[in-house]
Design a protein that fits this description.
The chain is an alpha+beta fold and 374 residues long. The protein contains 9 helices and 9 strands. A hairpin with a 2-residue loop joins β6 and β7.
Length: 374
Amino acid sequence: MTASAHSLSAHAVRPLVYDPAFERAEDDEAETARELVDTMLQISRKVQADEGHAFRSVHAKGHGILRAQLQVLDGLPAAYAQGVFAQPRTYPVVMRFSTPPGDLLDDRVSTPRAVALKLVGVQGPRVPGAQGQATQDFLMANGPAFSAPTGKKFLANLKLLAATTDRADGAKRVLSAALRGVESLVEKVGGESATLKAMGGHPLTHILGESFFTQVPLLYGPYMAKLSLVPVSPELVALTDRKLDMDDRPDALREAVVAHFRTHGGRWDLRVQLCVDLEAMPIEDASVPWPEERSPYVTVAHLSAGPQDAWSDARVAAVNDGMSFSPWHALQAHRPLGSVMRLRQAAYEAAARFRGSSNATPVREPEQLDDFPD
């Protein structure tokens, strides 16, 4: 396959070459990292006590697990042919759809949607802590920028999430409905509030119609980038902004994903946005959307998934219990950047260890997907 029409504008992009001086540690970043680990484990312990099983500290509730394949395009402009996208080839992929909270909420408590991709069979120099692995993870949510600018603010937000983990589900549904009403008013005047959506004000829409973004930057070979995943097949595009009936359906998102992939497949474009200006496209402020008029998202690969059982006991055991997703499962060519990403490394590792130990289920990085449950 060849690069999409986006490549015409891609040739005009002049990306900045990464310099270590672009990253600056926050004051007391090591202490912030320790507190983040403690907060994530606090969430995990509370949910384990409530559910009798250990789940992820964040993105605990899964809405679909897919086996897919990623086909890297041939003929990419040189700046975009980096890392796992350096050569045209196909990778097997595990996709997991989720929502961010650490507890298993009724879907009427409507928070942002997310997807995690795990490419398998990836070879090359690894980031510290990922030696011996053969995977590349990309974690994405349905907004172009992160909800917190820095690691410290990320910790503050997570502490708020931890404090509400044990609140009554019914009260959260009432709050979520109120927040959706406020967010609707904001959007009617041309605005949008990531804070309102994160607190439960996200519209009750179909997760498969969403476009997803890494939100936080990572290396892209010698450059810096954000990635996005955009639905392109007609059956997925038709679900964009599609409202879901969630009355008396606490798992409506999962039911919708399973119903779709029972008879249909789906295709997405994986796109890359390169950093061209640190003022407009900062590394250490994850809350700033990078302007697409300065550097457009360019398609570098196609992701496809055929009809399949998107939720089964075997897949839950293999992925929800037996795998972890982290931006630090990565090639050196895609090392995460910025304070939010730096804090995620130890926190995600600690959460995965807790989950594996509590459930007596090893959490491992796969080397191949030949035995992935159908």
